[in-house]
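Onboarding guide, step 5: your first structure request.
Type a short instruction followed by the sequence, for example:

Predict the 3D structure of this protein.
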Amino acid sequence: MATAAVVAAVIPTAPATAQPSAADALKKYNELSEKASQLNQDHLKAQGDLAAKQGELDKAKGDLATAQKAEESLRGQVDLLTEATNSGARFSQISALLVSDSQQDFLNRMSAINILAADNAEALQKLTDAVNAADNATKTANEATEASKKLLAEIEVKKADLDKQLAEAQAQYRSLSNTVKNQLASSGDMSNISVPPGTAGRALQFALDQRGEPYVYGSNGPDTWDCSSLIQKAYASAGVSIGRTSYAQAAAGRPVGRGEAKAGDIIVYYSSQSHVAMAVDGIRAVHASTEGVPVKIADIDSIGPISVIRRIEG
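The system replies with structure tokens like these:
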């Protein structure tokens, strides 16, 4: 019993609630970061949708102004023709015959009557078309305005969700050990890497040149990045325009299989398609990962489950 008491004194009592291991804490951080990344892409998409709607609204307002101007002008023309009619400028065939001095005079008067009738009919039709165009433009402008208001509200909600998720991820990051934080903050492989010629090579070189630069949600560079802004700017540097979000990039170019992946290919991750990287070769990719982690090279399959691989060139 004495021996048992000594052993009991030496062995520390297990806490009531087990503390999470470093691996568990890192896993939780990665999960929170992935969710924040998805919300970031949702927020960016909503901003892009709003910009498109604003463009539609601006065009609708321009169309409305043009239609209203045309309506005003044509209404004046119709008023003039109506006034001319009321003043006796319009004659019937019988009155034209009665007042004509000769057959030629009759033909001239009939020609004038027909021209007036045609002009008035054409002016009335144009006025009707202009009024309809103005009505349609008004409807389109109103619809675009309402859509923009809805998107603005949606953006505010998504931004609030993103801010909340970021706060959770940041709190989880602060709970990580210094050893884990230092590992995350490492820039990884900074060696010179040969890139192929052509568009894909130029895009890859741009991405590689950003290694070591910080990740910031929603950033567009030039010294901080999120995952999709890095890929967009990389291809922009090579003269190719692709979408801002990972969702848009998941539809760029053409699809290729995992075994075909090569330098410059865009690799989109997760079923949500919320993260994107660029292949360095068939094994490695460069990407802007998440907050606390700089742009760096990683094993393609270690980044996450691959959704799709897209090739922009070739």
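Each response can be followed by summary notes, for example: Helices lie at 2-10, 22-86, 93-99, 103-175, 178-185, 199-209, 227-237, 246-249.
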